[in-house]
Amino acid sequence: MTPSVTERPGAGGKPPRATDAPCARGAAVPAATPAARCGDPFVTEPTEYDAVLLLGFGGPEGPDDVMPFLRNVTAGRGIPDERLAAVAEHYHHFGGVSPINDQNRELREALEAELARTGPALPVLWGNRNFAPYLTDALHEAHEAGHRRLLALATSAYSSYSSCRQYREDLADALAATGLGSELEIDKIRSFFDHPGFVEPFVEAVQGAVTELAGRGRRNIRVLFATHSIPSGDAERSGAPGRDLGPGGAYEAQHLAVGKVIMGRVSAPEGVAVDATLVYQSRSGPPSQPWLEPDINDEIAEIAQGAADRPDAVVIAPIGFVSDHLEVLWDLDNEAMETAAQHGLDAIRVATPGTHPAFVAGLADLVRERVEARPAQRRAALTGLGPDIDVCRPGCCANARRPFSPALAGIAP
To answer: In CATH, what number is assigned to the domain containing residue 232?
Structure first.
């Protein structure tokens, strides 16, 4: 008999922050499988997992969910409801429903089918950071199904606090809240920003947009590679410590490298000039706090005020995102496309990977990579920054505004 929610410790909500994530005797990584416990950057011992755990951000599925969801997202930051209400309007514009949950349902189904087809035939579970189904629910579901060894896959491709370490902290929080720390082992798939499965859908989409704009008579096209802005301090600390990748850290360097690969594979028709810029969107911090720039709307306005040979069209490519969730729909399809129209620029916003067959196949390859303990030199990576490591280093992706919280899939700081 399956326990009710009230009989499942920590179920049905976002768990409190964990105060500890103990390691097994002789281990350096909390809750890790034997292959990852020692803390080596790349695992070298094959591992049989029981299930894949898809880690989502979460989102409201109706108007009544919007404010509780936003309170979860901003928990501990002291943001009043009046400020959250302004953001809530973006969700209410779409009926109070974020597309992200349906997208994760589709991705879960597609990945499970791909793994059944190509192996290993693992079930795919799904848990969110900020709304139902919560990570605590997913861990209970795994445990009740007899799964004890999980491989977590975050729906975020890059290295930063919010796109990697915070997911690892959430895993520690959920494990502590459920009381399953002695029952479950959880590893996490590496950041996959330059895996071909993630990059190739963007190459295809950008090429299609350039070709379409050229067919409309556009002769000077600017590709705007868009990603979520983050605080400059978090960017500087992104990735493993001790690697000098510039003021934007691993987060900015990884995006620049991916953009370079895409542009190297996109061909322009004769007589058409195409170049690219990395831009940012969706900043949410106070004006006094530096965030990564330029903002996409500012960049579009700057483009429009250029010389006689200024671009006459833009391709907006959201390379920072794996799916068309609300920030893509609102900040790009609504605001950025409107800004382009106001400045007389033809514009196309290309799709994110979503459930593109290459992306789903790439995620399955990442699962096999860990199951096989594939050597680093045989792992798929399209830039010199990859493949990223399996086990995060101490101090990896530090958050400048708060002390370290316990986290899984990395050596405890």
So the answer is: 3.40.50.1400
